[in-house]
Specification:
This protein is α/β, with parallel strands linked by helices and about 280 residues long. Helix 1 (about 20-25) runs parallel beside helix 2 (about 50-60) and helix 3 (about 85-100) runs parallel beside helix 4. The longest helix is centred in the first third of the chain and has 18 residues, at about 85-100. The strands form 2 sheets. An 8-stranded parallel β-sheet has the order 1-10-7-6-5-4-3-2. Strands 8-9 form a two-stranded antiparallel sheet. It has helices spanning about 20-25, 50-60, 85-100, 120-135, 160-170, 180-185, 195-205, 240-250, 265-275; strands at about 10, 35, 70, 105-110, 140-145, 175-180, 210-215, 220, 230, 255-260. The chain is globular, with a radius of gyration of 18 Å. The protein starts with 7 loop residues before the first strand and ends in a 7-residue tail after the last helix. Helix 4 (about 120-135) links the parallel strand 4 and strand 5.
Length: about 280
């Protein structure tokens, strides 16, 4: 059955607990959300509270939420030239995936990393090696590689680099991709004038069946800038109309969309309202 409701949410903080995130999502008209598994600039993780997570699961089921997206901390770098940094990434992701089984069947997204001078091919091999150590056949969580803008030595700046990582993963059925609209725009993909062409390229290189979620962001910079500066919806170089075409595209419209725009909850509520209003078959 075709989904006639836009599955959209924003980035929320788990500081008040998991059930609180679900309630915040409902308060702003969201039916999915994204959250950091731990301090985004550090390593500290919130102590697990199984009852709190079960309460969130019940709320999500009652209100027909889409899948939620857990986001790894920015400090992870699975392809650093420093051994300890790579070990930290492996240990953290392994722990996060164990914790995610308390919210089974959802997504875990991470930035592939920066090769820090080793070269892209070495970075790709190191990222895949890490994934092959932490991913298990028993897990219910799908791990998502995020498309990147191409700052510095970032890996994942092109569809080809994402595909190269996926090709080396031994359990590909546990993997997927999160497409970030700001990142691909800053990376040079013209989703404003040629969205169909970009999606055809994605399908040819990676496969649209592997696209599981979208970070919906405008960009402060022109296409190809490789800078990764998010803007509010309609206030950047991508624009509201182009981003609305993303949410309405027949090949994308049933995916979960997560806003990562520079906003407070009221700002997110306004973006969600406007995007819902422009969604074909959607309701405000």
């Amino acid at each position: 059955m075709t989904n006639q409701t836009l599955t959209i949410g924003c980035h929320l903080s788990p500081s008040k607990g998991y059930l609180a995130m679900g309630r915040d999502a409902l308060a702003i008209g969201a039916n999915t959300f994204q959250f950091f598994t731990r301090n985004p600039r550090g390593s500290r993780a919130r102590e697990l509270d199984p009852a709190d997570m079960e309460a969130l699961r019940s709320l999500m089921q009652e209100h027909r939420f889409g899948r939620v997206v857990a986001h790894a901390p920015y400090t992870l770098n699975a392809c650093s030239s420093t051994d300890r940094t790579r070990e930290f990434a492996l240990e953290t992701i392994a722990d996060d995936l164990r914790r995610m089984e308390f919210l089974p069947g959802n997504f875990y997204n991470f930035h592939p990393g920066s090769h820090t001078g080793q070269g892209v091919e070495t970075g790709i091999r190191q990222i895949a090696a890490m994934l092959n150590e932490v991913i298990t056949a028993e897990q219910s969580t799908t791990v998502l590689l995020e498309t990147m803008a191409g700052k510095g030595s970032e890996v994942g700046r092109s569809f080809e680099e994402i595909r190269a990582i996926l090709d080396l993963v031994k359990l590909p059925e546990k993997m997927g991709v999160c497409l970030d609209t700001c990142h691909v725009w800053d990376g040079g993909y013209d989703i404003v004038e040629n969205l169909d062409g970009v999606l055809e390229e994605f399908d040819r290189i990676i496969g649209l069946d592997r696209l599981k979620a979208i970070h919906l962001n405008d960009s402060m910079n022109p296409r190809g800038s490789h800078k990764d500066r998010h803007a509010r919806i309609g206030e950047g170089h991508i624009g509201f109309d182009a981003l609305s075409r993303v949410t309405n595209h027949p090949k994308l419209r049933e995916l979960p969309f997560c806003l990562e725009t520079p906003n407070d909850l009221d700002g997110y509520a306004d973006e969600i309202r406007r995007l819902r209003a422009a969604y074909t078959g959607g309701t405000i």
